[in-house]
Design brief:
Blueprint (H helix, E strand, L loop, with lengths): L3 H7 L3 E3 L6 H5 L12 E4 L3 H13 L4 E4 L15 E4 L6 E4 L4 E5 L4 H9 L3 E2 L10 H7 L6 H4 L6 E7 L5 E5 L4 H7 L8 E8 L1 E2 L3 E10 L3 H11 L7 E9 L14 E9 L3 H12 L6 E2 L2 E4 H6 L10 E9 L4 H12 L7 E6 L2 H5 L14 E9 L6 H15 L16 H8 L3 H11 L25
Parallel strand pairs: 2-4, 3-4
Antiparallel strand pairs: 1-2, 5-6, 6-10, 7-11, 8-9, 8-10, 12-14, 12-15, 12-16, 13-14, 13-18, 17-19, 18-19
Helix pairs in contact: 8-11, 11-13
The structure holds flavin-adenine dinucleotide.
Length: 466
């Protein structure tokens, strides 16, 4: 490869070519269905390496992918034939308990950030699977168990250290670069590579009232109607995430329900536990639960509770719709999907939006509207040798199409292969403002392996693969 020798002299981390030790492990991402082979992997040791890698890609017209935690279902973190800029060795986390802030490097995972902040009884709101990268998650918004109390991850973002498409470092916050800071809070990896994030922290845990309740699918219509009526007036402290799937064998449900369709609701109370017990009582009274695990549990347990159900290396496919209400028709779709599920790894999940996150002005960040409503994701997972992948993806598409009449959009992180239509659905009226930012910060679309906001003029259309 041209220029590689010279690059080796300037780069502190590892540069991996096909066949070299570590290449195959590093090119793997969470979704085992993605099998791409970069011409070169730049495993960065720090922000200076990121800048060197970006400049190298520009000089050699390489298609670039950026890997944080590797969780993008479409495999955006890895590229065929181009340069994979891998941040997964960039792990520094520094917590300032007095100021209640944390600074974390671009390759940190949610669990790593949580473990560092929980040492001081603090947390930054984030997502619900601990092996997700803070990089991708933060730049898209960040939905999680405590967002109804503390806001989305981006609502708690104070600043970002970025390497721009020119390979230059840029500190971005609300005062120095307000427009770019707006775009980074929801616009994904379109404007540069974040080498560090600074978050505002909140007192959380180390133990809080939380856990899942399970019902048989037969009770799901009744429970979902109770949830529909309760959610819009629920206290901000109450986080609610629903899921519908085949019950996995294990301690969560009685053995007679193993492998049978169930509805689950994970509740999180970010406040005084006694008040929380009263607040969740109406949901507990719905239907006839087969298991109720809501109790004081460690925050770190809550944050990793569904890690095992979202294993690396399985084949995954998903689509999502934001619905303003759980109408009877939407409830029918969710129940019907669970009845016809094609794999024990598959599920439908729903974040209940609103609360503090929903009170943020939709214009304040690129995430847009996050008021009352439900982000419903239909997720298919199956083990790699299963040759019948099509029936799993067909199950997802069928559910997604059935929900479409009630959809008002989608969270950018939960689109997969919808292409430009998905980006349009995710950003709607904000797309024009995001495009203006893209034109300014990445007019050649160097950062295109993402939910891509296309610049109006591609100045260098001939970006080629190595
Ligand atoms: C099992 C699972 C659970 C999830 N749960 C949640 C959840 O609870 N809440 C939620 O909001 N989302 C959730 N997501 C979605 C997740 O936030 C996105 O897939 C996100 O892109 C993952 O980030 P990553 O760094 O792990 O991914 P990667 O695949 O490494 O990166 C995805 C893209 O993000 C960009 N990117 C990543 N890091 C950086 C960086 N440092 N600088 C610039 N760009 C960067 C790049 O464009 C990259 O291509 C979940 C995903 C999975 C697979």
């Amino acid at each position: 490869m041209r220029g590689l020798q010279e690059l080796r002299g300037r780069f502190r981390g590892a540069l991996l070519r096909p066949g070299e030790e570590g290449y195959d492990e590093t090119r793997r991402v969470w979704n085992g269905a993605i099998d791409r082979r970069p011409a070169l992997i730049a495993r960065c040791a720090g922000a200076d390496d990121v800048a060197v890698a970006v400049r190298f890609a520009r000089e050699h017209d390489l298609l670039v992918s950026v890997r944080g935690g590797g969780h993008a279902v479409a495999g955006h973190g890895v590229v065929d034939g181009g340069l994979m800029i891998d941040l997964s060795s960039m792990k520094a986390v520094r917590v300032d308990p007095g100021a209640r802030t944390a600074r974390a490097a671009g390759g940190v995972l949610l669990g790593e950030l949580d473990r560092a902040t929980q040492r001081f009884g603090l947390a930054a709101p984030s997502g619900i699977v601990s092996h997700t990268g803070i990089g991708g998650l933060t730049l898209g918004g960040g939905l999680g168990h405590t967002m109804r109390k503390f806001g989305l991850t981006v609502d708690n973002l104070r600043s970002v250290d970025l390497v721009t498409a020119d390979g230059e470092p840029l500190h971005v916050d609300a005062w120095t670069e307000p427009e770019l800071f707006w775009g980074l809070r929801g616009g994904g990896g379109n404007f540069g590579i974040a080498t560090a994030f600074e978050y505002r922290l909140h007192p959380v845990g180390p133990v809080l009232l939380c856990g899942p309740i399970f019902w048989p699918l037969a009770d799901a219509p009744e429970v979902l109607r109770v949830l529909r009526d309760y959610a819009p007036q629920a206290p901000d402290e109450l986080g609610m995430v629903l899921f519908a799937r085949l019950a996995p064998p294990g301690p969560l449900v009685p053995p007679e329900h193993y492998g049978r369709p169930v509805l689950g609701l994970t509740l999180t109370w970010a406040g005084d536990p006694a008040t929380g017990q009263r607040a969740i009582a109406p949901l507990r009274r719905a239907g006839r639960p087969i298991a109720d695990h809501v109790r004081p549990l460690p925050y770190l347990f809550l944050q990793s509770m569904v890690d095992g159900g979202n294993q690396h290396g399985m084949h995954w496919y998903w689509r999502s719709q934001r619905v303003p209400e759980l109408t009877d028709e939407v409830i029918d779709v969710v129940c019907g999907l669970t009845d016809t599920i094609t794999s024990p790894l598959s599920y439908t999940a729903g974040f209940v939006m609103g609360g503090t996150a929903g009170q943020v002005d939709p214009e304040a960040t690129a995430v847009g509207e996050r008021g009352n409503g439900f982000e419903l994701s239909i997720v298919a997972g199956w083990p790699p040798p299963d040759p019948g992948g099509d029936r799993h993806t067909a199950w997802v598409r069928q559910g997604w199409t059935a929900l479409r009449p009630w959809s008002t959009g989608v969270y950018s992180h939960f689109i997969s292969d919808e292409g430009a239509a998905g980006v349009e659905a995710a950003y709607g009226g904000r797309l024009k403002r995001l495009t203006a930012l893209k034109d300014r910060y990445d007019p050649a679309n160097l950062f295109r392996m993402n939910a891509n906001i296309r610049p109006t003029a591609i100045l260098r259309p001939g970006i080629r693969q190595a």
